[in-house]
Design goal:
single chain, mainly alpha, Growth Hormone, Chain: A, about 70% helix
Length: about 230
């Protein structure tokens, strides 16, 4: 197992989808959902924190439906980059809580919406496409393990960081991580729309050659000469 995880067959796709998964957790979106009640109180939102938290959590149900429609008209890479930047802008607006109390609520809702509309669906598709068949089961498990470990670390660090630097600075840092995640995706993701799984694997691993599932050899037609005896 260790040999497989240290091979290029695993590390090349993981350097794309695995790193993006980890960065997405440290961008703070799951932290906002997890600590929604106390997060909105600290941000100075004047609505009832419970109602505001429900508004943010509802994005997890509405956004994937919108994302499914968007994927019919946009490539995965473009959708990921657009939604990543919009999520980052939402996180940045949370840090502007001193201007108006509604900004953190709008910003947090916007960030969550675009995270679940474009970023998460794209990562799920990439994970199924990028890892070669021979390591896919192990690779998917390792990717989810890294994702959940990063999520746990981010949630654990949130109270400490909030006390140390304050909520505005922390959300600005989350926005910076979201921008870094988007840029990394823009650099490492390649256009694979319309390709088969074998062709997609070859795009991310130049040492692999695509081979057809089956082939049919057609023998050249033989010329037959008829002789007529008179």
């Amino acid at each position: 197992m260790l040999k497989t995880m240290l091979s290029k067959t695993f590390l090349r796709p993981f350097s794309c989808v695995g790193v993006i998964y980890v960065l997405s957790e440290f961008a703070g979106l799951e932290v906002i959902v997890t600590y929604a009640h106390s997060f909105l109180e600290d941000a100075g939102v004047k609505l009832d924190p419970g109602v505001a938290a429900v508004c943010i959590a509802s994005m997890r149900f509405v956004a994937p439906l919108c994302g499914a429609v968007a994927m019919r008209y946009s490539s995965k890479k473009r959708l990921f980059v657009a939604c990543g930047l919009l999520a980052a802008s939402g996180l940045a607006s949370v840090s502007l809580q001193s201007f108006h109390w509604i900004l953190p609520l709008i910003g947090a809702s916007t960030a969550c919406f675009f995270q679940y509309a474009g970023v998460n669906p794209t990562l799920s598709l990439l994970q199924s496409e990028l890892y070669p068949t021979e390591v896919r089961s192990l690779a998917v498990g390792a990717t989810y393990a890294a994702d959940y470990a990063a999520r746990a670390a981010s949630a654990k660090l949130y109270p400490t960081l909030r006390e140390a630097v304050g909520l505005p600075a922390l959300t600005a840092g989350y926005a910076a991580v979201a921008v870094a995640m988007t840029l990394w995706g823009a650099v490492t993701m390649r256009s694979t729309d319309g390709l088969s799984l074998a062709e997609t694997e070859a795009v991310y691993d130049s040492s692999r050659e695509t081979t057809p599932v089956f082939s049919i050899k057609v023998a050249p037609a033989e010329r037959k000469i008829r002789t007529v005896t008179v």
